Amino acid sequence: MQYKSQMVAKPYFIGALVLFVAQILFGLIMGLQYVVGDFLFPHIPFNVARMVHTNALIVWLLMGFMGAAYYMVPEESECELYSPKLALIMFWIFLAAAGLTVVGYLAVPYATLAKITGNDLLPTMGREFLEQPTITKIGIVVVALAFLFNLSMTFLKGRKTSITTVMLLGLWGLAIMFLFSFVNPDNLVRDKFYWWWVVHLWVEGVWELILGAILAFVLIKITGVDREVIEKWLYVIITLSLITGLIGTGHHYFWIGTPEYWQWLGSVFSALEPVPFFAMTLFAFNMVNRRRREHPNRAATLWALGTGVMSFLGAGVWGFLHTLSPVNYYTHGTQITAAHGHMAFYGAYVMVVLTIISYAMPLMRGRAANSNASQVLEMWGFWLMTISMVFITLFLTGAGILQVWLQRVSTTPMGFMATQDQVALFYWLREGTGLVFMIGLAVYLFSFFKDGKSAA
Amino acid sequence: MSSDAIDMTEPDGRRHPPGDLAIWVFILAELAAFALLFILYGVVRAKHVELFNEMQLTLDRNAGALNTVLLITASWCVARAVAAIRKGADGASARWMACGILAGVGFLVVKGFEYSDKFDAGIGLDTNLFYMFYIALTFFHFMHVVLGLLILGFLLLKTLRGGYSADDHLGMETGASYWHMVDLVWIVLFPLVYVMR
Amino acid sequence: MSASFSTSAARNIFFGGTVFFVLMFLALTYDTEQKLPQRDQRAQLANPAVAAGKRVWENNNCIGCHTLLGEGAYFAPELGNVYKRRGPDFIKAWIKSQPTGVPGRRQMPNFHLTDKELDDLVAFLKYASEINTANWPPNVEG
Questions:
Q1: pLDDT tens-digit profile of A50-105?
Q2: B189 touching C, CB under 8 A?
Q3: Which of A62, A70, C53, C104 could pair with A9 as two cysteines, CB 3.0-4.6 Å apart?
Q4: Cβ separation B22–C6 shorter than 8 A
Q5: In terms of DSSP H, where are the helices of A312-423?
Q6: Nearest CB partner across the interface for B20, out of C1, C9, C20
Q7: At the fourth CATH level, which superfamily is domain B1-9+69-197?
Q8: What pLDDT was estimated at residue A454?
Q9: What is the pTM of this model?
Q10: Domain ranges of chain B
């Protein structure tokens, strides 16, 4: 670590990991509710558990991105952060807002929360992933603006590299697209149309810029390959992401009342969306193979390679599986979607945040890498979590195929709940694998406390 | 690729592929998108041969043919411009480039008349399957011509300012490669949509 | 291969390509907005009950368990077409009778909706069921 102000990344990373634990705990609750329907009812109904599960994920990934940016931008710009104090204040505000929101979700019925936060003045609540009270959304915008101001000022006064350019573009894009969360027309079709501008243009648009920038940064550091080489491939990959992903938004416009030409355009462009992910996999492996030094942090290398492979599988392959409109006609809104969502989020965004944490945390704790024992534990965490996620995805895919068959394809279609009973076995298997994931997460977290210093 | 012709005339110091490698990744991605659309067009046409044959007759084939000539001319001019700059003749290069741009603008004008005819008749993306493809494909291509012309315009300006020379014209090769891709797509698109029965 | 490959070219292509595809996407968005009135049943929005029903839908986080036109959680049935599957009276009676309390079964909370809220919600679900969704879902079971 070269600049003192990079240390502000540390609380962001710790906060992110704490919320990660919360996310998985609530995921396990939901997973059990799939098979033991009245588990924790009426204290934590499914919809509440799901809000915590998905919102915690989004917030901890955002925290991870912010921490990554605070770590990377000073080092890349070769100057101290514009205001470390502002960064720390914003961390606590963000954490408090996230915490209060979760308490709100758990403590009172959602309708009460909507009422006391004045949702009727500017209704934005009650839409998937955007369940936060309007006031929380405004808070997110304020935190994001302060964050972007801080980083942009740092960027402007220092060296401008391709990595920071792409990172900041991604982060600005993230903030700008979030403004569409305030767009909530009464017209359901238009509501959904612009809702995807937040959701899709985040995860299959600007977040990919952030992902690419973080991965490129870590690869430069751990492989010692020329910056020039890595940066130009970064540009090529994100170009591919955006030219496929922008019109690829069309794969969400098949069945929500939008014109039917989206079925063609959405299918064609999103069929190409695996290409940038494949390019990213090749890129990561190529750079590691051409490495000019043996970085002592092997765990970070493993996470970086894992991101390449798992994002290609989760976002690329599992996305392609149901992105063509004739297939999606049957799979839309089934467990297939859930399968894809789990592996794509884990493979792309969870893993890239864990990559930068794995690389930066030891440095912030005053060593180039953790001790061998600690790294071995971390790698155990990697394999346990990654393999469980593969199986969670496979079981959900199994559940989805059976569901589609019984409920949608069959000449005597079964009702929703009757179908759910038929696929219960898959849900049990998924829940079991989820427990293994939790164990993997515990092992991973334990590696932070394992005598890290001894061998560094 | 049509740009190979340039290399044949200039055996010394040529590059394979011409231009910057990054543009080739972009060109391949774009060609992949067009290729998928063409394949879909073929598959859907096979299912609705009668509709497609009937609707095809409503297209202005002469305008399409004229546009093919214009684009091939433009590509040829651009190729001459690159050949000229390789000999260091930047004056000639600029003149060829200007001719190329003129032919490209001609394409847009002809296509504009075609579109205004169709739009006046109330035809849109959702008129029928044939017109969905016709408009999606040709408009997507039309926008590529616009982008290609912007790039050529930039190349022309830089040439006029003496920005390219016999030793340093990588940028021009890069831009020209993109333009040839735009031309190539039309050479597939025109017979496929306007002519094939 | 003696190709040259520079960061500046890659960067220019990134910016050019991105602007180009953003413009294409905006053009398609414009066209979609022009076509939507034929498909989205916006005339029904003249009835204030529809918008009020959408508020009821949102303020109780229905999307947290159900899907609506296939989007949402996959824990409970699709409701985009529930008006056609069950009809207005069943919907109201069902919501009022929750939770079932059957041991081990998935439970839906009781949201204590007023009669007006129930009517609004049904108006909203009727509106949703009449949107032209290109024949999705494949059958009435959703």
A1: 999 999 999 999 999 999 999 999 999 999 999 999 999 999 999 999 999 999 99
A2: no
A3: A70
A4: yes
A5: 318-321, 325-331, 335-344, 351-364, 372-404, 416-422
A6: C9
A7: Cytochrome c oxidase, subunit III, four-helix bundle (1.20.120.80)
A8: 52
A9: 0.92
A10: 1-9+69-197
